[in-house]
Amino acid sequence: MFKVIKRLLTILILFIGISFFVFLLIHVAPSDPASVKMSAGTGRVSTEALTLMREEMGLNQPLIVQYGNWLFKFLQGDFGKSLMSDIRVEKLMIPAAINTMQLSVITLVFSLGISIPLSLFLVRCQNRIIKSLFQFIQFFKMSLPSFVIGYFLMYVFSVQLKWVPLLAKQGGIGLILPIITIVIPMSAKFIQQFTALLEQELQQEYVKVLYYRGMEESKIFQRHLLKNIFPTMITIVLLSFGSLMAGVVVVETIFYWPGIGKLLMDSISSRDYPLVQMIVVCISFLYLALTQISDGLQNRTDTRIKGGELS
Q1: Which of 15, 146, 194, 238 could form a disulfide with 250 if both were Cys (CB 3.0 to 4.6 A apart)?
Q2: Whole-prediction pTM value?
């Protein structure tokens, strides 16, 4: 119980720190929210009107008071309105978050489906040429930025071959290229990490004992190696959320997929500060929560921490 409370307090403290930092960055920007709101779709704004709007929005108060008011409203479920459309922020974010979740889950499933079998193959493979070739391909895939992969796939499969739609906003077959664009670097990263875990686990004394007992290699991998590295694999997958979101932001923008990443880029371009702030804060909070969850799961499920025995 104490550990749970400690983790919740950690998340709360980090959340307050991150949200205040984001709040500070937005409010030191060249254009304040009042000028953005009043000039949206119009021409010049008078100084008097701008002053009244700043007072109405509370922007004339000290920064710490503004943050306190924002945090109080946030905790009450009042996330503010978009400066551009005057629509409540959550009404814009929820559909976008659902689209991003759809893309992220499919991408993660495919990445793991590719990474785990290939990691097992590379660890058990004795051919140095094949292993070196795979390592070179992995390095090449990891070094390519997502936008390079995305534009290359668009040019080949959409522009030249015309096999798939250029934009993904319709969903369905249009999601093929965005998924591949994220899967390529993510699976390469997973393969590298999972392979390193397996090779490290193979050096443990208990593995040598199992080989000495004559246990089949496939059973050693299934019953012991994968079981022992599974908690660390969960941690890697959960902590990959940051890199996944970075790839999703780029891919959603390139392929025009109406997810949270594209919404963030559009809101930054239009200087829609309440929307930018809410998206960044929510992504940061989710990452913090996943970090704490992964740490807790690893401590509870790792048999080596618990002193698991060979069977």
Answers
A1: 146
A2: 0.81
Residue with tokens 């920007």: 29
Contact (CB, 8 A) for 171 and 256: no
Task: Give residues with Cβ within 8 angstroms of 187, minimum separation 6.
Answer: 110, 111, 114, 115, 118, 141
Q: What is the per-residue pLDDT across 16-48, written as a single tens digit (0 to 9) for each?
A: 888 888 888 877 776 677 777 776 655 566 777
- Single out the residue of 253, 258, 249 nearest to residue 283, CA to CA: 249
Q: How far is CA 133 from CA 80, 143, 185, in A?
A: 53, 15, 16
CA separation (Å) from 58 to 18, 54, 310? 22, 6, 64
Answer whether residue 134 shows pLDDT above 90. Answer: no
- Per-residue pLDDT band for 131 (boundaries 50, 70, 90) equals confident
Residue 11 contacts residue 296 (beta carbons within 8 Å): no
Shortest CA distance to 241 belongs to which of 295, 179, 180, 291? 291
* Cα 290 to Cα 260: distance, rounded to the nearest angstrom: 18
Indicate if the pLDDT at residue 307 is higher than 50: no
Burial of 143 (0-12, 13-18, 19+ CB in 10 A): exposed
**Tokens (6 digits) for 86:** 């005057």
Selection from 204, 202, 203 nearest residue 217 by Cα: 202
> What's the maximum distance between 2 C-alpha atoms anywhere in the chain?
86
Cβ-contact 244, 182 below 8 angstroms: yes
pLDDT at 124: 86
Total residue length of the chain: 311
Angstrom distance (rounded) from CA 47 to CA 35: 10
> Between helices 89-124 and 241-255, what is the axis angle to 10°?
120
Which residue is associated with the tokens 């999601």? 175
Residues 247 and 186 sit within 8 Å (Cβ to Cβ): yes
Cα 1 from Cα 262, distance rounded (Å): 40
**What's the half-sphere exposure (Cβ side, CA atoms, 13 Å) at 291?**
13
